[in-house]
Amino acid sequence: MSSWISRTTSSHNAQLITTAIVSGVVVGGAILGFQQARRMYRVNELKDSIPDIGEEHHATRLTEFGAASGAFQPSKEDERSMALAARARRGDYDDDLILEQLARNRVFLKDEGLLKLRNAFVIVVGCGGVGSHATASLARSGVSKLRLIDFDQVTLSSLNRHALATLADVGTSKVHCIRRRLEQVTPWTHFDCRNELFSEDTADVQLADLNGQKPDFVIDAIDNIDSKVALLNYCYKNKLPVISSMGAGCKSDPTKLFIGDISTSTDDPLSKSTRRRLRILGVKEGIPVVFSTEKPGPGKAELQPLSEEEFAKGSVGELGVLPDFRVRILPVLGTMPAIFGLAVANHVILEITGYPHDYLPSKSRDKMYEGMQSALQGTEEKLARHMGFQSQGLRIPITPDDVGYLVEEVYHGRSIMSGLSTRLCLVRWNKPGPEIIDNRTPGQYNSLLRLKDLVCLTKEEAARHEKEILKGDKKLEDLYDSKLLESVQLKMKEEELFQRFR
């Protein structure tokens, strides 16, 4: 061992490498140490700025939503409502009065349907414009157990679309704002308020049973894509009934609103991202959503890029309320979140009570995807044989679900060359190199085909592409114009970006 050390240290190259490694460790340690020291200094500085409790500075208890007890003092009316609600939840409220308040629903849904609704337990995740209107409708319709989950507070800009917030509620948590207002309307309702951010890590607790009762329905009114996908995936995998609201931002036409399976939702960026991420997780249908088919157009609102002034403030990521949350203001017409929320609540009421209603038909294209996968398998076998490889027993790592994902989400059911939507197939775009076959596993003969290698063309376009590019001597530039080449490149980069979610 000592002789190896002496030989290593006597080598000039080894000494340089050792010096570089040690220097890197020292510099890295110094940087981390400096950052830690700066954080500690800032924390101590902040602590030192807090005055000691004394005659001049008094300590008060925080309210249930984390504010100073004197900051949002309840009014006399609020105090009376809270007292009545506490009594009503204990059963000290005449049931005949409740039935009279719900009389119109009772006539519509009949006694059996109303009883189901009154016994229901519904969870609402996201209590902004959509969630607040959905919650208000459910409570007014008779749902007696509501769990509200939202980390956010009411802001001045919330008031154009929030169902229940007032100026007095600005700065308070959305979940408690909704509870306080609805206690004045339906005091018998049991509210389980969670002033928390929903996440995949906390889903088991946040969507847990309430006193042994499973959720009858979960409402997704989240506008953050990561949380939305985590919630829908959890509900789907755990067989919890759920309905999701897609984007109400930049929408203005209430006649274009639909309720249908997520596989049918179109013309909405939030829906597109949600569908794509869920498909990657193995969820391609079976989740009802509220969505708008309204298309953007001249003169219509659209999401604006951040101004140079905002970029000048520093890291854009630091402008958001939380990491990975959007920092741009989405244009929202105040009426549209209300319409989305009411549509969501309406669907939940019909589902719980068993009232007749129909869905938009979902896209039943499984057989088509299986056929396209089989055709792709045959193309790969012919290509391998043409290149001198054994083709018998060759397998491709592409499933029918992968085919559906590429066709629907990446290429939107059209040939990237002609825009046609009939006689479609998938084919390699670039001519493969010698690495077409995976020989890493003995006895297993696989193609190294990847999703980002494929494009969607019509069968006629694919036949010409295979003959002249994949098997012939022509280059892509010889056959296609720069506009098409750029479009394909963008699609491949887009698919490569989404590989990180697989």
Structural class: alpha/beta
Task: Give the strand line-up of the largest sheet.
Answer: 3-2-1-4-5-7-6
Number of strands: 11
Per CATH, the superfamily of the largest domain is NAD(P)-binding Rossmann-like Domain
Q: Compute the gyration radius: what is it?
A: 30 Å
Helix content: 40-55%
CATH topology of the largest domain: Rossmann fold
Pattern of helices and strands? HHHHHEHEHEHEHEEHEHHHHEEEEHHH
Sheet-strand content, in percent, reads: 5-15%
Largest sheet: 7 strands, mixed
Shape: globular
Number of helices: 17
Tell me, rounded to a whole number, the average pLDDT: 85
Task: Measure the end-to-end span.
Answer: 46 Å
CATH architecture term of the largest domain: 3-Layer(aba) Sandwich
Residue windows where pLDDT falls under 50 for at least 5 positions: 316-322
Total domain units: 2
CATH class of the largest domain: Alpha Beta
Explain this structure to me?
The structure is a single chain. This protein is an alpha/beta fold. The protein has 2 domains: about 75-355, Rossmann fold; about 365-500, no CATH class. The chain is built from 17 helices and 11 strands. The chain has helices at about 1-10, 10-50, 75-90, 95-100, 105-120, 130-140, 175-185, 205, 225-235, 270-280, 310, 335-355, 365-385, 400-410, 460-470, 475-480, 480-500; strands at about 120-125, 145-150, 190-195, 215-220, 240-245, 255-260, 290, 425-430, 435-440, 445, 455-460. The strands form 3 sheets. A 7-stranded mixed β-sheet has the order 3-2-1-4-5-7-6, sandwiched between helices. The chain has a two-stranded antiparallel sheet with strand order 8-11. Helix 6 links the parallel strand 1 (about 120-125) and strand 2 (about 145-150). The model is unreliable at about 315-320 (pLDDT under 50).
